[in-house]
Automatic annotation (TrEMBL):
GO cellular component term of the entry, any: cytosol
Superkingdom of this protein's organism: Bacteria
UniProt lineage: Bacteria, Pseudomonadati, Pseudomonadota, Alphaproteobacteria, Rhodospirillales
Pathway: Organic acid metabolism; glycolate biosynthesis; glycolate from 2-phosphoglycolate: step 1/1
Transmembrane feature ranges: none
Protein known as: Phosphoglycolate phosphatase
Organism encoding this protein: Azospirillum argentinense
Length: 226
């Protein structure tokens, strides 16, 4: 009989969404290209969008317009952003989880770890995607990019989620520099998934541990907390 696996030495684990749990670049590209076409702009590629994700939707829309023609005025940008957000909220393509996400979240929850979500994606879209995936009940606390007056890389975005989960020892799991910076500012160790949208060489993200597969997260957390 093999020994039971060691306990996971964190009371809470907070996840990023895009590039960490869901492979959303294809969906964001599709929705964004509809907005661009309504403004008579050419389409952007998924590869370009992968380089624009992580700073929130306003930054994504701003960059998409900057790469496809003259930069928009602030007023026009607001209209374009509202168009993009409404279209994304109404989009009914099922979101795609990275392999192993569902199982890994279940393993952590079964081990008594509280799960949180800290994303720069707007809260209503985040909630809709989690509902569509059936994952909402797993998350005890969630903060989107518009939930608080601050967002990642500000450490208060992450600290708020940790507090909402009841505090204690926490770890962050993300895919880009904003996740690492927020974790450092909040004094929380951080794991970075290498398959996401890092926008720089993953070795330079400054994470405590780099992981190629999320199924390896429980063991990585045991190493991190040891
Ligand atoms: O930039 C976004 O919209 C969201 O990105 P995040 O889920 O990786 O924080
Ligand atoms: Mg991300």
């Amino acid at each position: 009989m093999s020994a039971a696996p060691a306990a996971i030495p964190f009371s809470a684990v907070v996840f990023d969404l895009d590039g960490t749990l869901i492979d959303s670049a294809r969906d964001m590209t599709r929705v964004l290209n509809r907005t661009l076409s309504r403004f008579a702009r050419p389409a952007v590629s998924e590869e370009q969008v992968r380089g624009m994700v992580g700073d929130g939707s306003a930054a994504l829309v701003r960059q998409a317009f900057a790469t496809t023609g003259d930069a928009l005025t602030e007023d026009a940008l607001k209209t374009a952003l509202a168009d993009y957000l409404d279209a994304y909220f109404q989009d009914d393509e099922p979101p795609v989880l990275y392999p192993g996400v569902q199982e890994t979240l279940a393993v952590l929850a079964e081990n008594g770890v509280k799960l949180g979500l800290c994303t720069n994606k707007p809260e209503r879209i985040t909630r809709k995607l989690l509902d569509a995936l059936g994952l909402s009940p797993l998350f005890g606390a969630l903060a989107g990019g518009d939930t608080l007056p601050v967002k990642k890389p500000d450490g208060r975005h992450l600290s708020w989620v940790v507090e909402a989960l009841g505090g204690g020892s926490a770890a962050m799991v993300g895919d880009n520099r904003n996740d690492v910076k927020a974790a450092r500012a909040a004094g929380v160790p951080v794991v970075a998934m290498t398959y996401g949208y890092p926008r720089m060489p993953v070795q330079e993200l400054g994470a405590d541990i780099l992981l190629d597969r999320i199924a390896d997260l429980p063991d990585a957390l045991r190493r991190l907390g040891a």
